[in-house]
Write a structure and sequence with these properties.
Elements: H1 3-18, H2 34-49, E1 53-63, E2 68-70, E3 75-76, E4 79-80, E5 88-97, H3 103-108, H4 117-127, E6 133-140, E7 146-155, E8 166-169, H5 176-179, H6 185-196, H7 200-203, E9 212-220, E10 227-233, E11 244-247, H8 253-262, E12 270-272, E13 288-290, E14 294-295, E15 300-301, H9 307-321, E16 324-326, E17 343-346, E18 352-354, H10 384-387, E19 388-390, E20 397-400, H11 414-417, H12 430-436, E21 439-443, H13 452-465, E22 475-479, E23 484-485, E24 489-494, E25 500-501, H14 503-506, E26 513-517, E27 522-525, E28 528-531, E29 540-542, H15 556-563, H16 565-574, E30 582-583, H17 586-604, H18 626-644, H19 648-662, H20 670-680, H21 685-694, E31 718-725, E32 728-736, H22 741-750, H23 755-758, E33 763-769, E34 773-778, H24 780-786, H25 797-817, H26 826-850, H27 867-883, H28 888-905, H29 907-923, H30 945-966, E35 975-983, E36 993-997, E37 1002-1005, E38 1012-1022, E39 1025-1034
Helix pairs in contact: 15-16, 16-17, 18-19, 18-20, 20-21, 26-27, 27-28, 27-30, 28-29
Keywords: Aminoacyl-tRNA synthetase, ATP-binding, Cytoplasm, Ligase, Nucleotide-binding, Protein biosynthesis
Catalytic activity: tRNA(Leu) + L-leucine + ATP = L-leucyl-tRNA(Leu) + AMP + diphosphate
Pfam families: Anticodon_1, DUF212, tRNA-synt_1, tRNA-synt_1_2
C-alpha cells in the first residue's frame, strides 16, 4: 500500500467515527492487504478453471511518449490527458472475462431486484457488450471535410446503423468543448450548467420529457457516408459506455421522442417481421427484416437479412475496415495498483498454469522505480528477480504475469468479507453467509451501474454455482443517492465596456463576462436575486457540484467543529429525499441546530446563568393524557414509515411538530419523552445517548427496542361538531365521539367564536345528535341579538318545534353521508344552470341571425347570450341571496363578475373583430397565394357592453324570483312541511315537552306535495300527551 493509501486508510475511520456512524469497526477491512486480496486471487482461479477468464489480443490506448497503456478516461481528443501526448490504438494481449456466459441469467434475474429501472436498462445494454460494437464517427470541419478528431459511440444494435440520423453526447463528455460552434457556445454552456445540477436518476428514469441542444457540428456516418448532426442531451450519461450514442429514432423510444420534439429525420431500417409497418406514432424497437440499408460504394448491403444476421455482417465488416471495434472489457491494468494474477507461464511452452491455493496470496515485490518501461510492458517487468520463478507443480522454469488486476476487482465481493472478516480458512463461513445474505439495501451512485454492480452480480453468480453463497443475487434493493451541491453562487454580468448589466439583458449581448458577488451584497427581490446597492441589476443564482477547483467544497470536519455531528447528520437528512440532488445552505444547518437545542431544553430544562445545565431532566412521572399519547404515537408511525421509505426529511418534520406540541404541555411525562428520544437516535445519536443517560438509564439506548406505534392511539376519536344557533351554523367545536350533550354545550359556551352567541342568553332548549350536531334554540327575546333565524309569527308552536327537530335530523343525515351533489350547492348549481341555458339559447339566436341551425354554437364561445356573463352573474346573485350581500364572499363574486364582463366586452371583443378583418383579407387573396387556404380564425370571441348588461340583468332577475321563494321558511336551508298524521293524546296545555326524531330520514316521492323529499317520524310529548308526526323535508 502506498503512503497516500495508508494515510487515507487511517483518516477515513476517524472521520466516520466523528460523525457517529453505527458501523461495527471489528469488521473493518482493506482491499489492499494481502489477507484480503488472497481471496480475490482465489476467486480469479475459480473463473480461470471454468473458462470464464482468458487472454486475447485486443486494441488498447497506447501512448508512445509515456510508454504506457491509458484507460479511456485518460484520453481526450486523441491525446493523453496528462501531457497532451499522441495516443494510438495498439493490439496487446489482455486478460478478459467471459461475462456473456452468464448473460441470460444476468438479464432474467434483474426482474427480481428492487432497482431503479434506468439502472436495469443500462445493465441490459451492457450485458451483451461482446455482441455490440464501438463505432468511430469522423467529425466534420466547417468545410464538410473529415477532421482528425473522432467521436466513439457504443451500440448494441449494429444492424440499425443505416438508421442513425443524429448522434448524442452527454453534457459532461470530454469532446463537448471542441464540438460546439461559436454560434452555439453560450446556449450549450447554459444547458451543460443546468444538466450538472441534476442527478443521474433525474436525467434518466425521472425525466419524462427529453431535452437537448444542437452542438453546431456534424459527423459522418461510416456506413452510408451521410453527414448527421451532433446533439448534446442529458438523457445520455457520461458514465455509461463511451458517453455518446448513435441515435436511431425509428427503432429506439428515447431517440424517437427526441427526434419528434426537435424535428430530426426518422428513417426506418427494420420492418416488423418482414411486413412493412406505417404507424409513425410509435417506433418499432424489436427485430425484423432489414430495409434501406445498403451502400454500393462500400460494398455493404444488409437488406433482406434478419436483424441478428445483419448485426453479424456489420461486425465483420467493421473489423475488416477498422471503422468499428468489437466492444470488450479488459480485466487487467499495466500498473502497480492492482492485485497480482495467481498464474505463471511455462517458459518452454507458454502454457498458462494456475498456482495452487497454498501459494496464495501472491504479493507484489518492492520497487523503487515504478514508472512505465516505455516498451509497452507494465512496470512489474522491471522486477526481474520476481518475474523469474518456478512452477510449484511441475518444477519447470516459468515467468509471472506482469499485469495486475483492475482496481475494481477487490470491490466485486467485499460485501461478503464484511460478514466474516477474520476468516483465514475460507472466503466466508457458510452459516454466516446464510444468516446475512443478501444485502438488503445498497446505496450508491449510478456511475457504478455498469461496472462494479454488474461484475459484482457476475462474480456472485459464479460463487453461487460453486456453493460459496446461498443467494442468486448480492443486492436486493439499490438506491441511487442524489448529489449535494455547493451553496448557491451569485454572479454579476458586465458588458464589453465593463458596465454592470442585468442578467436578462446580458443574454442578448454578443460578449460579456461574469464575476462572483459575495452573499452579503445580495438581496432577494421577488423570484430573483439582485444587487443590494443597485436592485435594477439582476444576478445569476446557481448551485454547482462541489469541487476543489471551484472552491465550494464543504469540509465535514469544519461543520462538526462549529455545529456538532448531530446537526450535520440531521441537516443532511432534512435537506430532501435521499434520491434527490440538494443544495447546501449554512442557514439551513443553523435551523436544525436550533431544533436540537429546543429538544434539549424541553427535556433538560433551561440553562443556568453560567450557561451550564443541572443534572437530570425536568420530565415528570405522571400518567400521560390521551392527547399526549396520540401526539407521540402519530410521530412514531410517521417517523417509522419515512425511515423505511428513505424519506428522512419528512420524518424529521414529524419530530419537529411533536416538539412544538410538547412545548404546550406544562411538564413532559417520562413515558412520552423516552420513546421520542429513541426516535431521535438514528438522526442525532450523540444527543440522544446523553438524554437517555440523564433519564436514568445506565445501559446504552442502542440496546433498547425501537418504539412501535399503538394503533389504539392512532384512531381519530374526535369529531368536528357543527354548532347552530336557532338553526343557523355559527361555528364548530372539536369533541370526543362519545361526548354527551352537556359537555358539548360547555365546550361551545367556552369557544371564543361561539361564546358571544350563548353567554348571557336565555336558552329555550337544546337539540343534540351525538357526533353530528348541536342546535341551541334561544328564547325569542334573544333572536334579534343573535341575528338570523327569525321565526315567522305566523308559525304555530308545533310547526316551530317541527322545524327545529327536522333541522337537527337533516343536519345529522347530511353530516353522515355528505354526498357531493351539484344541486346541494346553490351557487355552483346556479352558475352551471346559467351557463348551460345560455349555451342552449345560442342555437336559436344563431338561427334568428343567420337563418340556419348550427349545433356547434352550443359548445363555442362568443355570440348571444353570453354564457360567461351569465355564469358569473348567477354565481354572484346566488351567493348574495344565500349568504347575504354584506359578506366578503359576495364582494369577491361581484368583482370576479365585473372583470369577466369587462374582459368579454374589451380584449376578447376586439380580438374577434380583428379576426373578422383578417379572415376578410385572406378571402380576397388569389388562390395561388400560400395563405389563401389558411384555416379561418374564430370571430365570435366577445360581446358588446349592451349584451353583457342585458344578460346580467336577466340572471339577477331570475335569481331574485327564485331567492324569494326559497326564503319562505326561515329556519335551515330547506323548506319543511309538517303533516299531522295521528293524535294519540288529547291535552292542550303549555307544559314541558320532549321532541325526538329518527336520526336518518328516508328519501321518498312526496306525491301531491310536489317533487321529492325525505320523511322522518317525529314524536312530541307535551304535558303527558303524545302526538306523532310524519315530517316531510322537501328539497329545493
Amino acid at each position: 500500500m502506498c503512503g497516500f493509501s495508508v494515510h487515507q486508510f487511517y483518516a477515513f475511520p476517524l472521520q466516520l467515527k466523528s460523525l457517529g456512524f453505527s458501523y461495527d469497526w471489528e469488521r473493518e477491512i482493506s482491499t489492499t492487504e494481502p489477507e484480503y486480496y488472497k481471496w480475490t486471487q482465489w476467486i480469479f482461479l475459480q473463473l480461470l478453471k471454468r473458462g470464464l477468464a482468458y487472454q486475447a489480443e485486443v486494441p488498447v490506448n497506447w501512448c508512445p511518449a509515456l510508454g504506457t497503456v491509458l484507460a479511456n478516461e485518460e484520453v481526450v481528443n486523441g491525446v493523453s490527458e496528462r501531457g497532451g501526448h499522441p495516443v494510438v490504438r495498439k493490439p496487446m494481449r489482455q486478460w478478459m472475462l467471459k461475462i456473456t456466459a452468464y448473460a441470460d441469467r444476468l438479464l432474467e434475474d434483474l426482474d427480481e431486484l428492487d432497482w431503479p429501472e434506468s439502472i436495469k436498462e443500462m445493465q441490459k445494454n451492457w450485458i451483451g457488450r461482446s455482441e455490440g460494437a464501438e463505432l468511430d464517427f469522423h467529425i466534420l470541419d466547417h468545410d464538410g471535410q473529415e477532421a482528425d478528431v473522432k467521436l466513439t459511440v457504443y451500440t448494441t444494435r449494429p444492424d440499425t446503423i443505416f438508421g442513425a440520423t443524429y448522434l448524442v453526447v452527454a453534457p459532461e463528455h470530454s469532446l463537448v468543448p471542441s464540438l460546439v460552434s461559436e454560434a452555439q457556445k453560450k446556449c450549450v454552456e447554459e444547458y451543460v450548467e443546468l444538466a450538472s445540477r441534476k442527478s443521474d436518476l433525474e436525467r434518466t428514469e425521472l425525466q419524462k420529457e427529453k431535452t437537448g441542444i444542437f452542438s453546431g457540428s456534424y459527423a459522418r456516418n461510416p456506413a452510408n457516408g451521410e453527414a448527421i448532426p451532433i446533439w448534446i442531451a442529458d438523457y445520455v450519461l457520461g458514465s455509461y459506455g463511451t458517453g455518446a450514442i448513435m441515435a436511431v429514432p425509428a427503432h429506439d423510444s428515447r431517440d424517437y421522442d427526441f427526434a419528434v420534439k426537435y424535428d430530426i429525420p426518422i428513417r426506418r431500417v427494420v420492418d416488423l417481421d418482414g411486413e412493412s409497418y406505417s404507424n409513425f406514432e410509435e417506433c418499432y424497437s424489436g427485430e425484423g427484416m432489414i430495409i434501406n440499408s445498403s451502400n454500393p460504394t462500400f460494398g455493404l448491403n444488409i437488406n433482406g437479412l434478419r436483424s441478428n444476421e445483419a448485426a453479424s455482417k456489420i461486425v465483420n465488416w467493421a473489423e475488416d475496415t477498422g471503422e468499428l471495434q468489437v466492444a470488450r472489457l479488459a480485466f487487467c491494468r499495466a500498473t502497480l495498483s492492482g492485485e497480482p494474477f495467481p498464474v505463471v507461464f511455462l517458459n518452454d511452452t507458454g502454457e498458462i498454469v494456475p498456482l495452487p491455493e497454498s501459494e496464495l496470496p501472491v504479493t507484489l515485490p518492492e520497487l523503487d522505480d515504478f514508472t512505465p518501461t516505455g516498451t509497452g510492458e507494465p512496470p512489474l517487468a522491471k522486477a526481474v528477480s520476481w518475474i523469474k520463478t518456478t512452477d510449484p507443480i511441475s518444477g519447470k522454469p516459468s515467468t509471472r504475469e506482469t499485469s495486475t488486476m483492475p482496481q475494481w476487482a477487490g470491490s466485486c465481493w467485499y460485501y461478503l468479507r464484511f460478514m466474516d472478516p477474520k476468516n483465514t480458512e475460507a472466503l466466508v463461513d457458510k452459516a454466516k453467509e446464510v444468516y446475512w445474505s443478501p444485502v438488503d439495501i445498497y446505496v450508491g451512485g449510478a456511475e457504478h451501474s455498469v461496472l462494479h454492480l454488474l461484475y459484482a452480480r457476475f462474480w456472485h453468480k459464479v460463487l453461487y454455482d460453486i456453493g460459496v453463497v446461498s443467494t442468486k443475487e448480492p443486492f436486493q434493493c439499490l438506491i441511487n443517492q442524489g448529489l449535494i451541491l455547493g451553496e448557491v453562487e451569485y454572479t454579476a454580468c458586465r458588458d464589453q465596456t465593463g458596465k454592470l448589466v442585468s442578467a436578462e439583458l446580458a443574454e442578448g449581448l454578443v460578449e460579456y463576462w461574469q464575476e462572483r458577488v459575495p452573499e452579503e451584497k445580495v438581496v432577494k427581490s421577488g423570484d430573483h436575486f439582485v444587487l443590494k446597492e443597485n436592485p435594477s441589476i439582476r444576478l445569476i443564482a446557481r448551485a454547482h457540484k462541489m469541487s476543489k477547483s471551484r472552491g465550494n467544497v464543504i469540509n465535514p470536519d469544519d461543520v462538526v467543529f462549529e455545529y456538532g455531528a448531530d446537526s450535520l447528520r440531521l441537516y443532511e437528512m432534512f435537506m430532501g429525499p435521499l434520491r434527490d440532488s440538494k443544495t447546501w445552505s449554512t442557514g439551513g444547518i443553523e435551523g436544525v441546530h436550533r431544533f436540537l437545542g429546543r429538544t434539549w431544553r424541553l427535556i433538560v430544562g433551561q440553562p443556568l446563568p453560567n450557561g451550564s445545565y443541572e443534572n437530570g431532566t425536568v420530565v415528570v412521572g405522571e400518567e400521560p393524557s390521551l392527547e399526549q399519547l396520540r401526539s407521540l404515537h402519530k410521530c412514531i408511525e410517521k417517523v417509522t414509515e419515512e425511515i423505511e421509505g428513505t424519506r428522512f426529511n419528512t420524518g424529521i418534520s414529524a419530530m419537529m411538530e411533536f416538539i412544538n406540541s410538547a412545548y404546550k404541555w406544562e411538564k413532559p411525562p417520562r413515558s412520552i419523552i423516552e420513546p421520542f428520544v429513541l426516535l431521535l437516535t438514528p438522526y442525532a445519536p450523540h444527543m440522544a445517548e446523553e438524554l437517555w443517560f440523564r433519564l436514568g438509564h445506565s445501559i446504552s439506548l442502542a440496546y433498547a427496542p425501537f418504539p412501535k406505534a399503538n394503533p389504539e392511539y392512532l384512531k381519530d376519536t374526535t369529531v368536528v361538531l357543527p354548532v347552530q344557533i336557532n338553526g343557523k351554523t355559527r361555528g364548530t367545536i372539536h369533541v370526543e365521539k362519545t361526548c354527551n350533550e352537556e359537555d358539548a354545550f360547555v365546550l361551545a359556551s367556552t369557544d371564543a367564536k361561539l361564546s358571544k352567541y350563548l353567554v348571557g342568553k336565555k336558552i329555550k332548549k337544546r337539540i343534540y345528535v351525538p357526533g353530528r350536531i348541536l342546535n341551541v334554540i334561544l328564547d325569542r327575546q334573544n333572536v334579534e341579538a343573535v341575528g338570523g333565524g327569525v321565526t315567522s309569527s305566523s308559525q304555530t308552536p308545533r310547526s316551530v318545534a317541527m322545524d327545529e327537530v327536522i333541522t337537527a335530523a337533516d343536519a345529522s343525515s347530511s353530516m353522515r353521508s355528505s354526498p357531493l351533489i351539484l344541486s346541494s350547492n346553490l351557487p355552483l348549481f346556479s352558475a352551471f344552470l346559467a351557463f348551460s341555458t345560455a349555451q342552449f339559447l345560442k342555437l336559436f339566436t344563431n338561427w334568428y341571425k343567420e337563418k340556419r341551425w348550427d349545433s356547434r354554437r352550443m359548445l363555442g364561445s362568443g355570440g348571444m347570450p353570453s354564457s360567461h356573463s351569465a355564469s358569473v352573474t348567477a354565481l354572484a346573485a346566488a351567493i348574495g341571496f344565500q349568504d347575504g350581500m354584506g359578506g366578503s364572499l359576495f364582494a369577491l363574486a361581484v368583482v370576479l363578475a365585473a372583470i369577466v364582463m369587462y374582459d368579454a366586452s374589451g380584449v376578447r371583443l376586439h380580438a374577434g373583430r380583428q379576426a373578422e378583418l383578417l379572415n376578410q383579407i385572406v378571402c380576397e387573396l388569389p388562390s395561388e397565394h400560400p395563405l389563401s387556404s389558411a384555416r379561418p380564425l374564430r370571430e365570435l370571441l366577445g360581446h358588446t357592453p349592451v349584451q353583457e348588461i342585458a344578460r346580467s340583468k336577466v340572471e339577477i332577475f331570475d335569481r331574485v324570483q327564485r331567492g324569494q321563494g326559497e326564503r319562505e321558511s326561515s329556519i335551515g336551508a330547506r323548506r319543511v312541511t309538517s303533516i299531522i298524521l295521528e293524535d294519540l293524546g288529547g291535552g292542550q296545555g303549555d307544559g314541558s315537552k320532549t321532541t325526538t326524531v329518527e336520526p336518518s330520514m328516508s328519501t321518498v316521492e312526496s306525491g301531491g306535495f310536489g317533487g321529492s323529499g325525505r320523511v322522518g317520524l317525529v314524536q312530541e310529548t307535551r304535558s303527558g300527551h303524545v302526538k306523532t308526526f310524519w315530517a316531510l323535508d322537501s328539497t329545493r
